[in-house]
Write a structure and sequence with these properties.
The protein has 434 residues and is of the alpha/beta class. The protein has two domains: 252 residues, no CATH class; 125 residues, no CATH class. The chain has 17 helices and ten strands. The strands form three sheets. Strands 1, 2, 5, 7, 8 and 9 form a six-stranded mixed β-sheet that branches. A two-stranded parallel ribbon has the order 3-4. The longest helix is centred in the C-terminal third of the chain and has 35 residues. The N and C termini lie far apart (60 Å).
Length: 434
């Protein structure tokens, strides 16, 4: 059985805390009495750490004392290349692994993370988040952060553009573009977390549960690596700036840069909660289990009729742009992405495996396009020849080359979609205008 692709939600998020290996599970059972004693002791020490952090003013001495006390709690923080940290940078961009990433980085340098999710008040303040007050929209949030960053006396901002935590081992979620609209220069921070016996974080767990498990295990090591500052290029949009920084962080961490978002994580966890465990267990032993778990229709748990009709309508829209791809392949990817544009991009870039009939049609069209004899090509062959360039699966070594390749595929996609639209509706509009 082939493992799920790196961009599959099953590999980005851990749904189970305990190891599946029998030897590790036995070691965890033997360690459990020691872990419970450490949990009780560290709860008592943790209260003192919180009081010390509240009593002392923000300074280098305070961060040193709290960092030493956190080591007693089993939270070890290491940093690489601290000389790369630029004191003039006002925005730090980091990947997200645990609920305590902002507190860990704050032990190394003063920074503030705005509270985007969660109820403001004592709990938000005690967790180390910065309250911005009532923020109605994302534009108001960006304006507030711009105003905050304009005051040089304020600590830098620490933002997590993934907007959701992953397990940190496989890939990065797609970066949101709004953190990159605050300033034209940011400093990436690569964060890796290691822990023995159990998973570092579980996707649907609360921060209190994660804190208790952190006190239970022998230790948790946070490795922070500072990267050189990244400047916005001339007339570079926020989305492309975010993509470029995401690629750089992915290379630094040795993971892949995916197109999955925080909404995909929420949808994935909702499907896991509503899928019976015996169906997940039976699907896990069959080929294509990752695709079945990602799509309730393939797993035997059919979606509501309205959702099925919506997917069918979106599949027809994708079929108009890519007629050489079968509806089965299109529906399979739409069940995971729920987005027409994303599915079209996945098919053009070769991320979605084609069914046998799709491959035969694509091979025949490619052979016809390379023939010396001039023949009348069908719309299906035209679609295949137009998507030949962006469907190449070559992975450039340089992040800049990968970025340029992505932009080239986007331009081909837009040009082809526009031509298809004009072929279908241009004549009708011309007739209606007379």
């Amino acid at each position: 059985m082939e493992p799920p692709p790196a961009s599959s939600p099953e590999r980005l998020f851990d749904a189970h805390r305990f190891p599946s290996d029998g030897f590790l599970l036995l070691a965890l059972l033997l360690y459990a009495p020691v872990g419970l004693c450490l949990l009780l002791l560290r709860l008592f020490i943790g209260v003192h750490v919180f009081l010390v952090s509240c009593a002392l003013p923000d300074s280098l001495l305070r961060r040193f004392i709290v960092r030493v006390m956190c080591s007693v709690l089993g939270l070890f923080v290491r940093q690489s290349d601290p000389n790369l940290r630029d004191a003039s940078i006002r925005v730090y961009i980091a990947n997200h692994v645990t609920y305590f990433d902002h507190s860990v980085i704050n032990l190394l340098t003063p920074c503030n993370t705005p509270a985007l999710n969660g109820t403001p008040g004592f709990i938000c303040w005690s967790r180390g988040f910065m309250e911005l007050g009532a923020v109605g929209s994302r534009a108001e949030l960006v304006d507030s952060l711009k105003m905050y960053s304009s005051h040089r006396g304020n600590p830098p901002l620490l933002l997590f553009p993934e907007e959701a935590a992953t397990n940190g081992r496989v890939g990065l979620l797609r970066f949101s573009s709004w953190p990159f609209s605050i300033l034209d220069v940011i400093q990436p921070v690569a964060l890796q977390v290691q822990r023995p016996l159990i998973a570092v974080s579980v996707a649907d767990s609360s921060w209190i549960t994660e804190l208790l498990w952190a006190f239970f295990v022998p230790f948790t090591v946070y490795q922070v690596r500072w990267m050189p500052p990244v400047f916005r290029q001339a007339a570079e949009p926020n989305a492309e700036f975010a993509l470029r920084v995401q690629e750089l962080l992915a290379v630094e961490l040795g993971v892949v840069s995916t197109r999955l978002t925080a909404a995909d994580k929420a949808e994935h966890m909702k499907r896991l909660r509503h899928t019976p465990p015996h169906l997940l267990a039976s699907a896990a032993g069959q080929p294509g289990d990752a695709e079945r778990r990602a799509s309730p229709t393939l797993a035997g748990v059919g979606p509501p009729a309205s959702e099925d009709v919506q997917i069918a309508e979106m599949a027809q829209r994708v079929k108009e742009v890519l007629p050489h791809v079968s509806l089965g392949t299109i529906r399979r990817d739409l069940a995971q992405t729920n987005c027409v544009d994303t599915t079209i991009a996945n098919l053009l870039e070769g991320w979605v495996p084609l069914l046998p009939e799709d491959k035969e049609l694509e091979t025949g069209c490619l052979a016809a396009s390379t023939s010396q004899t001039p023949v009348a090509s069908s719309p299906q062959c035209a679609a295949t020849s137009s998507s030949t360039k962006p469907s190449m699966k070559l992975f450039a070594r340089s992040p800049v080359e990968r970025h340029l390749s992505l932009q080239e595929r986007k331009h081909v996609l837009y040009a082809y979609a526009r031509r298809r639209y004009l072929e279908k509706y241009g004549t009708q509009r011309a007739d209606g205008s007379h």
